[in-house]
Design goal:
mainly alpha
């Protein structure tokens, strides 16, 4: 083990943890972006979740679940736009046929 241990401010740690927890971003991406060792950030996130009652693994979404959720949200937006368009078209043709 090296003699140098990184000293990080509590603000830096909090920012890194928030990027993972609040942003639902993968730990590996955030760690790479901030120049951290992935396991260090993983430890910080685990400690944060334990302190704040987020220790249950069942509440977390996996990467594939997040991707599916984004896909479904996009589909819902598209269907709502189509529904709105069809409503306007129906009103237009009903008005024109009178």
């Amino acid at each position: 083990m090296s003699k140098f241990r990184g000293k990080y401010t509590p603000e830096f740690r909090d920012t890194a943890v928030r990027a993972v927890v609040d942003g639902s971003r993968p730990i590996a991406d955030v760690a790479r972006e901030l120049g951290l060792v992935e396991q260090t950030l993983r430890n910080w996130v685990a400690a944060h979740r334990e302190r704040h009652g987020g220790g249950e693994k069942s509440d977390e979404l996996t990467v594939s679940e997040r991707a599916r959720l984004k896909q479904l949200e996009k589909e819902v937006r598209e269907l709502r736009m189509e529904n709105e368009f069809l409503g306007k078209a129906t009103a237009f043709f009903a008005k024109k046929s009178q």
